[in-house]
Amino acid sequence: MTEPVTVDLMDADLLSDPFLGYSRLRERSPMVQVAFGGAGSPLWLVTRYEDVRAVLGDRAFVNSPANVPGLGLKDVRETTVRSMGVADEYAPYLLSTVLDADGEDHLRLRRLVARTFTPRRVQEMLPRVQEITGDLLDRLPVRDGVVDLVEHFAYPLPITVICELVGIPEEDRGLWREWGAALLRQDEPEGIGAAVAGIVDYVTELVGRRRAEPADDLLTALIRVHDEDGSALSGFELVTLVLALVLAGHQTTAHLIGNGLVALLDHPDQLKRLRADPSGLMPGAVHELMRWCGPVQSTRFRFAAEDVVIGGRILRKGSPVMASLVSANFDPRRFDEPHRFDITRQPDGRREAHLGFGHGLHYCLGAALARQEAEVAFTALLERHPHLSLAVPGDDLDRARMPGVWQLRSLPVRLTQE
C-alpha cells in the first residue's frame, strides 16, 4: 500500500481557508493521516462524502474508546483536557456526556430530551423565537451606525432560547455566554478550567434549587426522571446532559448566523434573490449556508470497534478517526460545482444533503431548532436593515484560529447606508 498523505491540522493555509485546503486534501486521498501525538495509533481523517457518511452512520465506529472491545484503550482527550487546567474532579464532565455515549446508553439519554426538539415542538416555539429576535434587534447598541452582531445578536438569540427551554434563569445567562466563549478559546486555554468548574458547580446548585421549586422546563422534567428512577438517569448524567444541551444548543447556531451573514454580504446576487422572496427561499438558503460555511468542520474522534475498510484502506480495530465535514460538503462527487454558493441548491428547503449537522445516530438533536433560529434571524435582519454591510474588509474579520471550526469572534456591521 502506498505511503499515506499526511497533514498538520494547524497548518496556516488550512486554518485561513479550510474550504480550499481540505478540498485539495480530499482530491489527493480519501484517507489522510494526521500529524498527532499521543493517539496510540495513527489518527486518520476521512475526506470524501460517502466515506464520511459511512463513518458517521456505521455502528462499527464508537465515540468512546472504552467501547472498543478487548483493547482497554485510554481516552486520548484526558491528557488534553488536563493540560487545559481542568481539575481531575471536573474532567469527567467534559469526557462523558451524551455526545460521548454509544449504543443503548446514548439512546437512553437522547430519548430523555428528544421530545423537546421534535419538529412540532420547535414549530410551537416559533412565536417566542421571533419575539426574542425582535427584542434583540430593538436593543442593538449601535455606535456611529456600527454594531458587533456576534456579541449583541448571533450569540444572545440561541443562548436565550436554549436557556429558556432548559430552565436557566434569565439573570444567569450571561455566565453561560462567558463560559461557552472560554471553552472555545482553545488557543487561550487559561480560562477553560475555571469555566468547566463554574458550569458544573452552577448546574449542581441549580438542580437543588429546581428540585425545591419545580418549573415548566426541561430541567424539572429531568430531575423528576432521576428522582423516580436513578437507573434511568444518574445525578452525574443529569449535570452533563444540561451542560451539553446548553453549550451545544447555542454555539453552532450563533456561528451559523455570523458565518451566514458574511456569506450573503459577499454574494450580493444571492442576497438580492433572498430579499425578493425570503419566505420561499429562506429554508433552502439556511441549508446551503450550513453546507457552504458551517461552523463545525470536523467531528470528534471516533474509534473503529472492529477492523473496517474505509476509503480503500483497512482501519484496524481501535484506530482513531475524524470525519471532515467541510471536505465532504465540498465533494464534487456529491455536489455540482460545490464551491459555488447557491441558495436555491435545495429548492424545497427540506432535503438535507449536506452533513453540517452530522448523520446517523449522533445527528444533531437540535438541528430543527437551529435551522428555525437561523431562518428567523436572517429574515428579521434583512427586513429591518436593508442597507446592512460589513464595517471592516472581509479579510480583516477576527476568526478563531483553531482546526475543526469556522467561527467569528466578532462581526462589526454597518446598519445604515454611508
Tell me what you see in this structure.
By secondary structure, this protein is α+β, with helices and mostly antiparallel strands. It is about 50% helix and about 10% strand. It has 18 helices and eleven strands. It has helices spanning about 10-15, 20-30, 50-55, 75-85, 90-95, 105-115, 120-125, 125-140, 150-155, 155-165, 175-185, 190-210, 220-230, 235-265, 270-275, 280-295, 325-330, 365-385; strands at about 5, 30-35, 45, 60, 145-150, 300-305, 310, 315, 320-325, 390, 410-415. The strands form three sheets. Strands 1-2-3-9-6-4 form a six-stranded mixed β-sheet, with helices on both faces. It has a three-stranded antiparallel β-sheet with strand order 5-11-10. Strands 7-8 form a two-stranded antiparallel ribbon. A hairpin with an 8-residue loop joins β2 (about 30-35) and β3 (about 45). It is globular and about 65 Å long. About 40% of the residues are buried.
Task: Briefly say what this structure is.
This protein is of the alpha+beta class. It has helices spanning 12-16, 18-28, 49-57, 77-83, 92-95, 103-114, 119-124, 126-138, 149-154, 156-166, 173-184, 192-212, 218-228, 235-266, 268-276, 278-293, 325-329, 367-384; strands at 5-7, 31-34, 43-46, 61-62, 146-148, 302-304, 308-310, 313-315, 320-323, 389-390, 412-414.
Write the layout of secondary structure elements.
Blueprint: E1 5-7, H1 12-16, H2 18-28, E2 31-34, E3 43-46, H3 49-57, E4 61-62, H4 77-83, H5 92-95, H6 103-114, H7 119-124, H8 126-138, E5 146-148, H9 149-154, H10 156-166, H11 173-184, H12 192-212, H13 218-228, H14 235-266, H15 268-276, H16 278-293, E6 302-304, E7 308-310, E8 313-315, E9 320-323, H17 325-329, H18 367-384, E10 389-390, E11 412-414
Parallel strand pairs: 1-2, 3-9
Antiparallel strand pairs: 2-3, 4-6, 5-11, 6-9, 7-8, 10-11
Helix pairs in contact: 8-10, 8-18, 10-14, 11-12, 12-14, 14-16, 14-18, 15-16, 16-18
